[in-house]
Amino acid sequence: MSFKRSLTAVLALCMVFTGTLTGCDTDRTNPLDNTDSNLPKVQDISVDEAKDLIDRNTNSTEFVILDVRTPSEYAQGHIAGAVNLDYYASFENSLFALDKNKTYLVYCRSGNRSVSASQLMVDNGFTSIYNMLGGINVWIANGLPLAT
Question: How confident is the model at residue 38 (pLDDT cuts 50, 70, 90)?
Fold first, then answer.
């Protein structure tokens, strides 16, 4: 009988100890989780939302449309007022020339480069970044205008 009690006590202690180590308290934050809800994040928006954002900020000096395609892609047609900063040509090294406090709408051809570019911007301290989902391909498919 004393063996069973000892074994039960040891098992109970092991369960308590294991629960403490594994953090059974669900209200605790994971110290390895480095996602802070207060940190800036890229906001993915549709082409229609991007068009609305552009329309609302037409005369704002605090708003920049950033085309991260190559110069030849840009020359074939771009959103009016867009600044071209080629993602493949030292994009990250060029970020120092941009104002980190402005709002940026970032786009590319299909949405892949703009995701990477937007995240690099946030990682480098930019605070307000919008990524246009689908890129210029969806912009064109929606019949929206291009500048050349």
Answer: low
Residue 147, both tokens: 């500048």
Which two tokens mark 68? 């991260």
5-30: average pLDDT: 48
Question: What is the distance between the alpha carbons of residues 140 and 137, in angstroms, rounded to a whole number?
Answer: 5
20: tokens are 């403490």
Question: How distant, in Å, are the alpha carbons of 8, 9, 21, 32, 34 from that of 24?
Answer: 21, 20, 8, 16, 20
The secondary structure of 83-109 as a DSSP string is EE--TTTTHHHHGGGS-TTSEEEEE-S
The pair of structure tokens assigned to 31 is 């110290």
Q: How far is the C-alpha of 43 from the C-alpha of 131, rounded, in Å?
A: 6
Digit-coded pLDDT (tens) for 100-120: 999 999 999 999 999 999 999
Q: Give start and end residues of each alpha helix (H) in the chain.
A: 2-22, 47-56, 71-75, 91-94, 112-123, 135-141
Which residue is listed with tokens 């939302």? 49
Residue given tokens 């209200």 in the structure block: 27
Q: Which residues are catalytic?
A: 108
